[in-house]
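Just curious: can you write a single protein's sequence together with how it folds?
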Amino acid sequence: MTHLRDLPPFPLLQFYSTAPYECSYLKGRAARSQVATPNHLIDSVTYGDLVARGFRRSGVFTYRPNCDTCQECQPVRLPVAQFVPNRSQRRAQVAHANLTAHEVPLRFSEEHYQLYHRYQLTRHSGGGMDGDNREQYSHFLLQTHIETRLIEFRENGVLRIVSIIDVLQSGLSSVYTFYDPDIPVKSFGTYAVLWQIAQCQQLALPYLYLGYWIRQSPKMAYKTRFRPIETLRAGNWQLLDETTDPAHTHQLVLDTRRQNESWAINFFDNTNR
């Protein structure tokens, strides 16, 4: 992670570090966050600059990990022009071709909340969010000072997935996705990321920001299955796989650009936005 001194000037913002608290990802470790304030002055442009420097938001609070002795939380993003889905991701796309995606108003829905609650109880039991009430859910996902979209995915009218996405100048930022946990053979999470990648390509946005990745966290392993993926290290974005030859990556872009464009078009041909 970068330090505060590495940030460009934000004359209207102040940054402070929280007191240590128990890490929710790595057992037995203490965490600390750096928070940007005041919240109401962080608009979409400013927030985009902060995201590019490793920040993220939870509701109206913009933060990044700032732990004393740990740097396991690594910001990651996908350069979508280089992305080519692997075999399992293509299977997920085909398996969910009957899902329809619609943008709906960013406001409370009891149907959304009940799906969120079931998802937390099943997939993240004991993680601290499985007891979120309606007010906590709303603070976490529905409060924002920037351009945010709420996308719901339905199968024959049945709600299966909800994704909250921020729109930035440099890309889309995946805030949170939750889905029906009672159909374990389905790959709803993979499908949601594929849809967001294709949306970036359709909007000519270069990156999909996926938040933080922790090597030791199995729940975050899915992020590195989307390749290539970049991580922010010492203030610079670079490929997560340090052995990747940049010349090879450049050639990969040239060889697959047309294939990527065709994939995005075909994806949306089968998806009602």
